[in-house]
Q: What sequence folds into this?
């Protein structure tokens, strides 16, 4: 079955950096785009970054552009989100997500999330 497992979250000071990872299994990872979302308390889940299946096209939300970098390793079935110059506004649970064809329709699959807390 499809599994997405995030790791690497934690507590970091403002201005610091953190890299979260997403280990994928149960599908052909190298054939599908990967997304990172985040959800802060009281807020809706928002798309933060996206990377194409080949890794040659990326997209970022304006709020993280220039600070976050999404990448992937198709040999290891891993997706990453490198986060620099973190601020308290970046505090959230970070989720990796992909959309796969299931039974003729598209279905979104989510990891369990990893908490990132930016605080002094």
A:
């Amino acid at each position: 079955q499809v599994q997405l497992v995030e790791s690497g979250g934690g507590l970091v000071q403002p201005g610091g950096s953190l890299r979260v990872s997403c280990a994928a299994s149960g599908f052909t990872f190298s054939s599908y785009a990967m997304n990172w979302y985040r959800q802060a308390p009281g807020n809706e889940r928002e798309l933060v970054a996206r990377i194409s299946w080949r890794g040659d096209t990326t997209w970022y939300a304006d709020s993280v552009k220039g600070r976050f970098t999404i990448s992937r390793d198709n040999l290891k079935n891993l997706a990453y989100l490198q986060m620099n110059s973190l601020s308290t506004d970046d505090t959230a649970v970070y989720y990796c997500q992909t959309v796969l064809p299931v039974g003729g329709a598209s279905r979104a699959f989510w990891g369990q999330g990893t908490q990132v807390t930016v605080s002094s």
